[in-house]
Each structure stands twice: as structure tokens, then as C-alpha cells.
Design a protein that fits this description.
This protein is α+β, with helices and mostly antiparallel strands. Helix content is 33%, strand content 22%. Helix 2 packs parallel to helix 3.
Length: 96
Amino acid sequence: MDKFKKWLLDNEEFDENEKSLVTVKKYEINDYNILEKVGEDIKHNDIVICNIEEKYLIRTLDFIDGISFVLDVEHIILTKNIHLFLPKNICYKSIS
């Protein structure tokens, strides 16, 4: 658990006023082995979209929601299986 906490919380300072490109990553979750990469991308303030196969849905969301809570990432449910994770410096507004 300590190794996980160190990995999750050991990041460089982020300047919210700094202009930078926004990176969007899309994942098809059909294996738990890809979750480390998803976590890394969320940790690096990338926008992450996940299309999660039904049998991986609960455990995957438990893992990603834990990371999202610690890093103050917004979790938006687009459909039952498609989920969007936004860094705190990105504003999301649903039009419909």
C-alpha cells in the first residue's frame, strides 16, 4: 500500500496558470493490466475516456474512482460503460 501511495502522490508541482496542450486518452478496458497506464495518465492530468467491458466495470471503476478522489479528478458517466475523467483544471458542462 505504501508503494501505491508513493506512486500516486509523488508528482511534480502543477502550475494551473501555465498554458499547455490538453491530451485526451481513450481506453478500451478489457483487461485489468491496462489500469496502471490509465492511472498514470490521470495522474499526469490527461483527460481519460474509458469504454469498459461489462465484466470489468465494477473493479475498474473502484480503482479509478480511488485515484480520482485523491487527485480531485471529476468522474462523468457518459453511458453505463463509457466514463470520462477530467483533471480539476478542465471544466465540463453538459449541453443536453
